[in-house]
Amino acid sequence: MYQIIPQQISQSKRKEVNAKILSAIESGNGAISAEEVYNQYTGIGGLHELKQADFSSYHDFAQAKREAEMGQFFTPHEICSQMVEAIKPQPNEMVMDMCCGMGNFFNFLPNQHNVYGFDIDPDAVRVAKYLYPNANIQVANLCTHNPEERFDIVIGNPPFNLDFDGIQSQFYYCNKAYWMLKPSGLLMMIVPVSFLQNEFWQRPKVNAMNRDFSFIGQTKLAADAFKSVGVEKFETKIMVFMRESKNIEMNPYNAEEFVSMEKLTTRIAQAKGITEESKLQIRQETKEEISAESREFEYKLKKYLYEIKTHKSLEKHYDKALALVAKFRNQRPPEGCTLDEHKAWEKRKLTYNKVLAVLKRYIKNQNVVHRKEIALVKTQNGFKLKGYAPHLLDKVAVKSVSLNDILSVGAKLPRPEKMTAKLRRQYVAVERFIERKRNEYKLQSRSFETMQRDEALDTKIQSLTFYNKDMQACSFTELQQHDMGLVFQKRYALLNWQQGSGKTAVAYHYGKHREPHTKNTVILAPAIAIHLTWEPFLQRHGERYIIASKPEHLVNVPKGAFILLSLTMISELVGPLKEFMKVRSNKICLLFDESDEITNPSAKRTRQSLNIFRRAKFKLLATGTTTRNNIGELYSQFELLYNNSVNMMCNAYNVYFQNKDGAIESKTNDRYREPFPARGGAVLFKACFCPGKASVFGIEKQNQDVYNQEHLAALIEKSIITRKFKEFAGEKYEIINYTVTPSDGERAVYRTILEKFHEILHFYFNPIADKKKESQLNLVRQIQLLIKACSVPHKMSGYFGCGYPQKAITIEHKLRYELKGKVAIGCTSLDAVELRL
């Protein structure tokens, strides 16, 4: 064990000292002792030589700094000693240090032969190998290295706040540790205090940790713990977890609980004592985990190889089968490959299932009689030629085509050299199918302004009526009938009519119009719209309907019945709803009321709605506000309408993004004249039409600028009909605004809320345990109080003067002397409702 000798190496000298140490190790002349190397080498952390003034924002500066340092800050020797002393590894236990750097933890471990480590920095690994020649250390990337061994302990200091495939580096480290540890193995690591700091804001990550690990404890380190490697002040902590096992009781993570190092050491000892009592069961569990899949593979492999070797009709495949198995067992990623190259190798490498599938295909096809026949068959995305014997399609250049290419660019069906009578009949049927799809595509692609009228449909619409709340039969206005005549011709449309324009009645008749071609109509809407609008409306019209709130409600639904589904119930009924759609072959008419509820493509509600209803045969979306903040919010509604099909083409030649200087730049669109993809489509849509800009804090900020306007306009004009209420009602209604000047007492309430909010907060809101969450809520609470102060200021702190606010006095005067007939008064709170004038 090397002795810890305190060093005073200035920040300016660190780089020079590191270079001398590496040179001495390379030369092998022994100019510097191993103990001097141990105490003086400090790595590249803090030596980036970057200046914040050279970057447009701190976010860009921090990102460049992390990339230069690779998150490398060696753990001080004293902390390594404390951590190893706390976890007390035994000589027979296997220990792994991922991202080991120069191997500072190794100095205190009892058996160097059972120590494993790797790091991406070759210089750090060279130093570690020099200091610990008996340890198993190599240069490797955390993202690509997958050792075959399983370990009892993973101890280390992962890189902080790097981005690994969209995952925070500390959390990626935990995921990797899970697969490297044996059941009930220990994970001990140093992380920033901000990691899993809040169970509310980081709920998905906390849930994942609780699923994979049992929490033992955590303790804070001094803020200047990493001062020796150039970090003057940074709060960190030590966290200890035990990998899940069916032989231990799982303890959930507690973000608020911190203990002393002594208490943490006691907890670790208690946890190890529990595993020691069940070590035989845990050893069996480890063996089962490692060998279960392998054992099944080996059994099937022997079985298939035996069949191939012993049957005369399969003997010809035996050598190929052995070669495939040998290739599988000996495959390795390319030496020194990049991360992208390793990902590509991971995709094409042989797996258990791939090997078994080839061998099974040999056996399955042993009695297949090849026939010299070619058929035109439908695939998931288009059509292809299929040969039922080898080499029949060798001279055919194009063997498949997608339906998107046929409809959008006029691609032709692939054709063989010779046409048989049977094949000719197949082509006739396919051409008939394509012609129908082409006509639908042309109709769907026309803007509503250029569409032609359908006289028969217009006559039908003129005869349609609906019942209002007083059970009076009402007809549609000429403008409503005009829009209905256009919308009813299309399979997919979005009705953007302002509130009170009759969207409910139009959507109802759209569903009835499509009823002969569907099995049921699903009405998806917020709960308040389901119970206060749709349920009474269907009752007045004598329709059969089911309010879906349980899985059994979706079983044996009669044909023609309406299904009322609130958005809040989707997450509870995902499985039953998918089964409902599958049983009916997606022959469903979807009526989505208030479709602006899915403007956020990342929201769980949006993803579930798309997952269930994207393949519905007919879809009508209705909302008064298609967007709330920016044009990018249209994307999810378009995706639900068109299911990323040829009707949703990305025709923008250029896409736009923000460069490092903060300016918007353009580049060629890689997906030009392709449908917006299901994965990453929202990002592409924003890049085409409304690129975001990063604020000084690195947060993306959306703006109102619109790019590629002609292509966006074409998509909107063929999909959306927009009307204001005034277009239907005309000048029948007049809006008159009255200005009310607040009294001095009311102004005093406003000042109190703005200037003394924290003093009066506890009068109106209950405190919550999560202080971070409470601080985030305070701004919203302040706005809520200001809104309330505009309604009932006389009931709030700081008010003086008359017993009623000026607004109430004005309303009373209008009621007594000016307004005649029935008057409705809107209230923003229960206190305002209870106000007696």
Number of helices: 29
Structural category: alpha/beta
Let me know the average pLDDT.
87
CATH class of the largest domain: Alpha Beta
Radius of gyration: 35 Å
How many structural domains can be distinguished in the coordinates?
A: 5
Shape: globular
InterPro entries: DNA_methylase_A-5, DNA_methylase_N6_adenine_CS, Helicase_ATP-bd, P-loop_NTPase, SAM-dependent_MTases_sf, SNF2-like_sf
Organism: Mucinivorans hirudinis
Keywords: Methyltransferase, Restriction system, Transferase
GO molecular function, one term: DNA binding
Please give the structural blueprint.
Layout: H1 11-27, H2 34-40, H3 58-69, H4 77-87, E1 95-98, E2 115-119, H5 122-131, E3 136-139, E4 151-156, E5 163-164, E6 167-168, H6 169-180, E7 181-192, H7 203-212, E8 213-220, E9 236-243, H8 261-277, H9 279-310, H10 318-330, H11 339-348, H12 352-364, E10 374-378, E11 382-387, E12 400-402, H13 403-408, H14 421-445, H15 455-462, E13 465-467, E14 473-475, H16 478-487, E15 492-497, H17 503-513, E16 520-525, H18 527-540, E17 545-547, E18 562-566, H19 574-583, E19 588-593, H20 604-613, E20 618-622, H21 635-642, E21 649-650, E22 654-658, E23 664-668, E24 674-675, H22 681-689, E25 693-694, E26 700-701, H23 709-719, E27 720-723, H24 725-729, H25 744-755, H26 757-764, H27 771-789, H28 806-817, H29 830-833
Parallel strand pairs: 1-2, 1-4, 2-3, 4-7, 15-20, 15-27, 16-18, 16-19, 17-18, 19-20
Antiparallel strand pairs: 5-6, 7-9, 8-9, 10-11, 11-12, 13-14, 21-24, 22-23, 25-26
Helix pairs in contact: 4-8, 9-12, 15-16, 19-20, 25-27
GO molecular function, one term: DNA binding
Keywords: Methyltransferase, Restriction system, Transferase
Family: Belongs to the N(4)/N(6)-methyltransferase family.
